[in-house]
Specification:
globular, 19 helices, mainly alpha
C-alpha cells in the first residue's frame, strides 16, 4: 500500500484515525502496531514474518544489553543484533549483486538466489541498529514493552521510505504523547502538501523521463530535459513522501525530524548533504563516520573513512555498481571542497551552479541501468556521439512541460512556503487555506483515479 493511492486515502487512513482516537492510553500503540502490520503486509504478506522476527530480535537484544552487568556481555549482544540484521539485509538486498559481480569477475555462472526485496528493509534495519547501539552507549533505556517497541519499528507513516526515525528521538513519545486539534490540522496540511508534491509534480516528471527513454529521436535538448526532470522527480518524490510521513506522525502525536531543507539552494556539496536526506546523513555520521574516527585521524585514515562512508551510502541506495560509483563521486567532491581552498572563494552564483551541475550528473548516473547507459546519457548532454542539438519530440515536450518545469523549479525554493504562510496569516486565510487544501486533495484524487500506479522511488531501497 502506498500513501498516494485511493485505498489508503479514503479507506485505510480514515479508519485508522477513527479507531486510534476512539481508544486511549496504550491502546493507541496497539492500534498503530496492528494497522502498521496491515499496511506493510498489504502488498507482501509473506514477508511479515521477517518484520516480526526483526522486532523480536532487537527487542530481546535491547533487554539483554540493558540488563548485562559486564561490558563484554553488552558488546556480545550488540554484536548479535548487528551481525544478524546486516546478514538479513545482505541476504535479501545484496546477495545477488555480490554473486553476479563474483561471476563476472571469475567467469563462473553461479546461480542467483532471486529473493524478493522486502520494502523498506534498509530503513527499518537502520532504525533498529540505532536502537541497540544507543542502548549499548547508555543514551537510552531499553524498551520494556514489546508492543511499544513493535509500534516503533513498524510505524506505517515512516516505515517504507523514512525519514529514519531514531528510537532516542521518540522514546518518550511512545509512552506519553499529546494530541490537539491544532497539531492534527497541522499534520493534515503537511500530509496534503506532500501528496501534491508526489502526485502532481513527481509523477509527471517521472512520466517525462519515461517518455525520453522510449523516444528514438533524442537530442541535446531532450537529454537536458530528461536530466532536469529526473532531478526534480527524485526530489519531489522523496521530499513529498517525507512531508506525508512527518504530517502523519504529527496527526498521531509524534514529532519526526525534517528530512529535506531546500537542498537545491546549496552552494557546496557539503551543504547539499546537510540539506538532502538529512536523517540518512546524520545516521552515517553518528553510527559509522564518527566511530571510525571521523576527521580526527591522519589524512590517509580520513580519506579511508570518507570513501568507506560514501561507498556504504551508495550501496544503501541500491545493489548495483552505479550506486557505488554515485556514492564515491560525492566522497571525491567532499574531499575536493576540503582540499581546494579557492573553491569556496568563488562567487555564490558559480558555486551554486557547480553544485546543481554535479548533482544533476550524479542523478543521471543514479538512474542509469548500466554504466554504458550512464555514459551515453552524460555524453548526450554535451552533444558527443553525433547527437543533434534539438529534435521534434524535444520541442513538443518542452512546450507541453514548460509550465510544469516552472512550478517544479519554484517548488524547490521557500517561495511557495512563504506565500502559503502569508495567506495563512491573513484574515482571509482561515477560509482560503482550507479551500485550497481541499482543492489540492481533489486534484490529486483526480490524478490517482485517472492515472496508473506510481510507487515511490525510494521503495526499492
Amino acid at each position: 500500500m502506498v500513501f498516494s493511492s485511493i485505498p489508503f486515502l479514503y479507506y485505510f487512513l480514515p479508519l485508522v484515525v477513527l479507531v486510534y482516537f476512539l481508544v486511549s492510553g496504550r491502546g493507541r500503540n496497539t492500534v498503530l502496531l496492528l494497522s502498521s502490520l496491515v499496511f506493510y503486509g498489504w502488498g507482501e504478506p509473506k514477508l511479515l514474518g521477517l518484520m516480526v522476527f526483526t522486532i523480536v530480535l532487537f527487542y530481546l537484544c535491547g533487554l539483554a544489553i540493558g540488563g548485562a552487568k559486564e561490558q563484554k556481555q553488552k558488546k556480545f549482544w550488540l554484536t548479535v543484533s548487528v551481525v544478524i540484521s546486516l546478514a538479513l539485509l545482505g541476504l535479501f538486498k545484496y546477495a545477488d549483486f555480490f554473486i553476479g559481480s563474483f561471476s563476472s569477475l571469475t567467469g563462473l555462472s553461479l546461480p542467483l538466489i532471486r529473493l524478493s526485496l522486502p520494502v523498506g528493509i534498509s530503513f527499518y534495519t537502520f532504525q533498529c541498529l540505532s536502537y541497540t547501539v544507543d542502548v549499548y552507549r547508555g543514551q537510552v533505556q531499553p524498551q520494556r514493552s514489546l508492543l511499544s517497541f513493535g509500534a516503533y519499528v513498524t510505524m506505517f507513516p515512516q516505515l517504507i521510505a523514512g525519514p529514519i526515525v531514531r528510537y532516542a528521538d521518540i522514546a518518550r513519545q511512545l509512552d506519553d504523547r499529546s494530541h490537539s486539534l491544532d497539531a492534527f490540522l497541522l499534520g493534515l496540511r503537511r500530509f496534503l502538501v506532500g501528496l501534491g508534491k508526489k502526485v502532481i509534480l513527481a509523477d509527471n516528471f517521472a512520466l517525462l523521463a519515461s517518455l525520453f527513454r522510449q523516444s528514438e529521436e533524442k537530442s541535446v535538448l531532450f537529454y537536458w530535459m530528461y536530466a532536469v526532470a529526473f532531478m526534480l522527480n527524485i526530489y519531489f518524490d522523496f521530499s513529498g513522501y517525507s512531508d506525508m510521513a512527518i504530517g502523519l506522525g504529527r496527526i498521531f502525536g509524534f514529532h519526526f525530524m525534517e528530512n529535506f531543507n531546500y537542498p537545491y539552494l546549496s552552494r557546496s556539496i557539503t551543504e547539499f548533504w546537510r540539506r538532502w536526506h538529512m536523517s540518512l546523513g546524520s545516521w552515517f555520521r553518528d553510527y559509522v563516520y564518527i566511530p571510525m574516527g571521523g576527521n580526527r585521524v591522519s589524512k590517509a585514515r580520513w580519506v579511508f573513512n570518507i570513501f568507506t562512508v560514501w561507498m556504504l551510502t551508495g550501496l544503501w541506495h541500491g545493489a548495483a555498481w552505479n550506486f557505488v560509483l554515485w556514492g564515491v563521486l560525492f566522497g571525491v567532491a567532499l574531499m575536493a571542497e576540503k582540499w581546494i581552498p579557492g573553491l569556496q572563494k568563488l562567487p555564490g552564483v558559480l558555486r551554486h551552479g557547480y553544485v546543481l551541475l554535479l548533482v544533476m550528473l550524479s542523478f543521471v548516473l543514479f538512474n542509469a541501468e548500466s554504466f554504458s547507459q550512464a555514459g551515453a546519457d552524460i555524453a548526450g548532454l554535451f552533444g558527443f556521439g553525433g547527437v543533434p542539438l534539438v529534435s521534434a519530440p524535444a520541442l513538443y515536450y518542452l512546450k507541453s512541460y514548460a509550465l510544469l518545469f516552472l512550478f517544479g523549479i519554484v517548488g524547490t525554493t521557500p517561495v511557495v512556503k512563504q506565500c502559503a504562510g502569508k495567506i495563512g496569516d491573513s484574515k482571509a486565510g482561515t477560509v482560503l487555506e482550507p479551500l485550497l487544501l481541499v482543492f489540492l486533495l481533489l486534484v490529486c484524487t483526480a490524478y490517482l483515479v485517472d492515472g496508473s500506479f506510481s510507487p515511490f522511488l525510494y521503495f526499492r531501497f
